[in-house]
Design a protein that fits this description.
- It contains nine helices and eight strands.
- The protein is α/β, with parallel strands linked by helices.
- A hairpin with a 5-residue loop joins strand 4 and strand 5.
Length: about 230
């Protein structure tokens, strides 16, 4: 933890020891009515939920769990062969009421606090851009956060996540199974295919999310796989 980037330390009791090295960052929204409610839940032993950091809408950064410990933020999840996401990741909660309580864009002070925090941890832990993901990416059948208002494009432009590629052509796979297999090769859990497609859209084409396979997302996925296979998508 870089103490210059943290405004408060409010310890949560909800953590245990890591079983894996840190290779990922998972971004969430709190999905509760207020920051106070979210903080109380993240620090309540009975909730069995926590994160390493929570960032309030005014940009206040709160450290809840030491980075070398395993916070409990991802639940049952998967990304690129890793099933114990909590052990492999740092979890960041962004205060936002979420889809249940009035989802709204993430304000500038909050993003301004996130960007240097994220850049610092990626540098210290050598986290690849491809492993900065949303909760919906690692748990597509259960989660939709941080959602379509989160500015992934901005992170991509700054080298803090994969850039969102433009589809050079519409690519229609021979059948849905072929697309799902390609999506799995990229990193997603495809047990619930429609949910995985919606998660991919939410991340890489947030302006239109319907869970249906189409030529545009086929083309986007092709570009991402080409980048990965040529070593440019680290």
């Amino acid at each position: 933890m870089n103490r210059w980037l943290v405004n408060k330390v409010i310890p949560s009791p909800n953590f245990n020891d890591r079983q894996l090295p840190i290779t990922m960052v998972v971004l969430h929204y709190t999905g509760m009515r207020t920051a106070g409610e979210a903080l109380a839940r993240l620090c309540d032993p009975s909730s069995q939920v926590s994160a390493h950091y929570m960032i309030e809408e005014d940009g206040t950064v709160i450290n809840l769990v030491p980075e070398d410990k395993r916070a409990w933020h991802a639940g049952k999840s998967y990304w690129r062969g890793v099933t114990d996401i909590n052990s492999a990741s740092i979890g960041i909660e962004l205060v936002n009421p979420g889809h249940e309580f009035g989802y709204r864009p993430f304000p500038e002070p909050q993003m301004d606090a996130l960007l240097p925090l994220l850049a610092d941890m990626m540098d210290r832990h050598d986290i690849p851009r491809a492993n900065v993901v949303g909760h919906s990416d690692v748990a597509p059948a259960r989660k939709v956060d941080p959602g379509e208002y989160f500015d992934w494009a901005r992170l991509g432009e700054l080298g803090l996540a994969l850039e969102i590629p433009k589809a050079k052509m519409n690519l229609f796979y021979d059948n849905p199974g072929a697309f799902y297999l390609a999506l799995e090769r990229f990193g997603y859990d495809i047990i619930d295919g429609r949910a995985a497609v919606a998660a991919f859209q939410r991340r890489f084409r947030p302006e239109y999310i319907d869970g249906e396979i189409d030529g545009e997302i086929g083309g986007i996925l092709l570009e991402l796989l080409l980048e990965r296979d040529t070593g440019r998508a680290r």
